[in-house]
Amino acid sequence: MASSNSSSFPHGARDGIFLKAQEPAPLCCKPVQSLPDVCPKEPTGEGRGLCAGPSVVPEHDRWTVYSSKVNLPAALNDPRLAKRESDFFTKTWGLDFAEAEVMPSFCLPNITREHFGLYVQEMLQRERIHERCKTICPIKEDVDAISSMTTNHDKPRAELEKVPKIFMKPDFALEDPATFNAVLPWSHFNSAGGKSSRDVSSSKLLQEKMSHYLDVVEVSIAQQISLRSEAFFHAMSSQHELQDRLQETQCAVAVLRSRTTAIDRVMCQGPLQALRIALTRSNCVKLHNKLKLMAAVHQTQPTVQLLLSTSEFVGALELISTTKEVLQQELQGIHSFRHLGSQLCELEKLIDKMMVEDFSMYVRGDMSRSLREEPQVLEKERLESLVFGLLRQRKLDFLDTYSDEIMVSAKAIVAQCVAEALVHIEGIDSEVVTKFAEQMRVMTFPQWFQLLKNIFESFLLFLQRIKATLNIIRNVVLEVQLSSQKRVPGDLGSESQTRESQANSPLLLQGEAELAYLTHEGLFISDALNEVQQQVRDHNQDPVTSSRGQQSQAEALSCDSTSEVVETPVGREPSLMPGETTMPTELELKRIMTNIQDLLYSASDISHDRCVKVLTARAKDGSLERLSVAEFVCLSQVVEAFAKDTEELCGRHSVSLRGALQSQANRFVHRFHDERKNKLSLLLDNERWKQAEVPAEFQDLVNSIADGRITLPERKIPDLEERKPAEFLLVDGQKYAVVGTVLLLIRIFLEYCQCVNDIPSIATDMLTRLSDLLKHFNSRSCQLVLGAGALQVVGLKTITTKNLALASRCLQLVVHYIPIIRAHFETKLQSKQFSILRHFDHITKDYNDHIAEVSAKLVAIMDSLFEKVLSKYEVKAPMPSLCFRNVCKQMAKMHEAIYELLPEEQTQMLFLRINGSFKMHLKRQLARLGVINDGGPQHGLVVVDVAFYTENIQGLKSLEHLDLNMAEIWEQKR
Hints:
- The chain is an all-alpha fold.
- Among the domains are: about 370-485 and about 585-625, no CATH class; about 685-715 and about 725-860, no CATH class; about 875-970, Monooxygenase (Up-down Bundle).
- The protein is about 65% helix and about 0% strand.
- Strand 1 (about 15) and strand 2 form a beta hairpin.
- Pfam families: Vps54 (PF07928).
């Protein structure tokens, strides 16, 4: 032990660090030395001084392996190793002092087997010779010593083996009954009591046996002591030397302690005291901030009540949310706030109900106020606050409430407009006529029309207000959506980054501690948090301040657990974790945006539906069908303007009102067509088919059509000098002799075109009805003229050629305007509706066929005349004959009848056909009479009559250049 303990004290000091001295130890050059005696002689009393002892403070002599008093085998074979815990060193410094593993010295070289290689090679041959010599002749002293030791040890060992093994057991104890009975067998004694001679002898024998065992053991112990006497006495002498060295060590330790105490007093106590004071101050600041934070949290409920009294729902919710976060983070475990979390949750639920009710009240107040006098949006800030609060609390069904109020308000608008209209109308008792529909039917059309315009105007203002309100709501939703999109990248950061940012911003902890304290001074926690974050950003820009902050935070983190004022959490209510949000998700926000747009569409549809009810209530008794064209056009224009305005305002193409108007338009068109068709039928039934004078207004009408205006001209103030009616109607430079019915027909189809201009939605229906009207005129005029129906209807005596020519000219005038009408309707139709324009092609063909039939009728009249007259023709004097005179007379009458009615080209074509008919009948009669082209007397007489006929025909107007070609009447000479 002395070797191991002494070797642990380093000798030699350099710069305050003690290093173990290293001796030069040449491995192969130094001769082998014998180890010192294990048991040296007693000390002479000349002890070494303090400087020679193992001191850690002063410099001392160099220690070598020869300074050790006990070799390694003696230390390892120490019989007191089991009681080592009672030694001085181990008792003071613990078992690790003796058993501790000593780190290898960095100053000593690492000795390996290769370093002894040369020595081993040199000694190998000597060792072999020594071993061979020992086997050949062993040393006598060694043989005697071995034999003596063997004899001396064998005898005590044999006697010691006779001692019972029970006495040698480590757990031998007489207190144990089994051990006691085994050592003292009481069974050999008399159990009946009393002492017999046998018992006395047995006890003596047992006592002698145990005495013998004791002697054997004592002899063995004495022998062992004698074998180790020298070591024992050496240990006793070493004890004195150890005591001297311990005294020296004690003095050295005392000096070291005094110096250490002075160093501690001078260099350590002051700085440590400063650190303790700084740490105490930091803890006091934390405690003060925590108390201020608790005071601010304590004021949360009164502040929330104050905010709710001014309808600051968003501020109240933000305050509650921030207070929950503070309770969850900064004030977690505070016993006095254990119920505050649940109270804030209940308060939040109450705010939810208040917001929903306040939003309903706001909507009702907004819908019930005047549409014309007040602004579009009522209390914009209040609406934004309500919508933001509802979104924050995920009350996403608030638009349903708004939709219900829209429906109720739309009904109220109609009722209010009707009530206001009845106030200004006399003769309608609202108490007698209680229903709105009956009240509207009692009104005249101008009164009802004004009411309808007022309703349209009110609904436009109503939709503008709804759109403005929904725009405010949409803007709030967009702001929430943008803020959530900005917050997403920050939420994706790891928790380690958050902790690092908190570690780099020491002001944030202090700022969060002071932040709730600002609430009772007029600021919200969210505002204070923004200010603190700004201070932290400014603080991070200063590297000196940042380093100091990190140092102070390191001191704060090294705080004792005794400085904590927070208790363990007891019965806390669950609350939101830090960073958790209750805002709607991106999908929910998009759904709300869609619902806002759908709500605007719904408001437009509701407005149109209420207007449809007003329209159908008026049309229930058929009053809208009996409107004049101008009135219905005004109605259509107003409805179409309202539909376009709502479409531009709401972006919704509502079809209900247009559909109702289209239904009424169809009924109006049906009545309109029936009236004009009946009127045309009455005109045709009373038409005597005589040429009528053309009033100036009709000529102006035709002229406007020629200028491209397919509309009815406005009524002009009559001139002082009225223009006289004309005999013919001038159309594109041509004269048209017409009857009065055709003039009115031109005005009628212009009325159709005017309706299409005013009401484009009825273009297809109007086209069908107009084609039906033109067909009716064609068929009816054919029945009256060609079919001679006018004889019975009007009472004409006969249908003259003049009647036929006049009818043909009227038909030609209608045919002239059919392409113009077609082109006008083509501009009002869509491309997919052009197929119905084929009706005009059919009508044009029917009219042309009718005109051709009239021409054929005129030819047929003359043909029958020729057949009747020429059948009595005889070739005899006097010349010209009476037959040819009658023919020429009838031809002159025909020419006189149609000359002014038909144009010159048509007259020439007609007389060419008549002349052909005459030649055919004359040829037949001459063939019957047997007159041939032979130059005889009869041929000469016929030539005279034909010349008379030709002269008379060519003497008529416009027939001067007519080539009659009368040579075809002669048959060839036989």
